[in-house]
Design a protein that fits this description.
With 197 residues, the protein is of the alpha+beta class. 41% of the residues lie in helices and 16% in strands. It is built from 8 helices and 7 strands.
Length: 197
């Protein structure tokens, strides 16, 4: 019995260490690679839950995001951490944020479908901005003449908002005019600034 507990504690320490030093979220598949022997998903999930519980009440928490597990500062401590690097968050135009919201809630969509919903042309710069940020990508092609690309949000988009899936997005009825994630502010010049998680 004692060796089983010792072995489980060793698993927990190895996984916790990997999560603490990782710069990106780690998937269950990634975490399994840490060990030479095959680890059952059930045991791995139990260990991850144990790590979550062990970190309760601290300034850092283990969270599950769309692309995997990662440690992050609890939201109530973010204002203190922001003082260490008082960088201005990226600023995005209303058109960029509207396009992103349409793709997030209605995607995958073609550029023409996005334009139909917005009622205006979607410039190449808007699409490029969202692709460079890693928030949207082409996930397929519509079987119509010209085979237009279908845009959808990425796991990086969900990770930046601290979500596991698009199902966790707030209902559209609750949003009012425009999707403004936590940390987003309307600027006087009509642009938006947004902080990624």
């Amino acid at each position: 019995m004692e060796s089983v507990l010792h072995e489980r504690q060793h698993l927990q320490t190895v996984i916790e260490t990997a999560l603490l030093v990782a710069s990106e979220p780690l998937s269950v598949h990634d975490l399994k690679k840490l060990f030479a022997e095959e680890l059952k998903a059930e045991l791995l999930n139990e260990v991850l839950e144990a790590i979550q519980q062990a970190w309760q009440g601290r300034g850092v928490e283990l969270v599950r995001l769309a692309s995997g597990w990662r440690f992050r500062a609890r939201l109530e401590y973010q204002p203190y951490l922001d003082r260490l690097s008082p960088e201005k968050p990226p600023r995005y135009s209303r058109a960029v944020m509207e396009t992103l919201a349409i793709i997030a809630y209605k995607g995958p969509l073609t550029r023409g479908e996005i334009e139909e919903i917005r009622g205006v042309t979607v410039s190449t710069n808007i699409v490029k901005t969202l692709e460079e940020r890693g928030w949207i990508e082409v996930v397929g092609y519509r079987e119509t003449p010209g085979r237009p690309g279908l845009y959808s949000t990425t796991r990086a988009f969900l990770d930046d908002l601290g979500l596991k899936s698009r199902a966790e997005l707030p209902p559209l009825a609750e949003l009012g005019q425009l999707v403004l994630p936590d940390g987003a502010e309307q600027q006087g010049d009509g642009t938006l600034s947004i902080e990624a998680a």
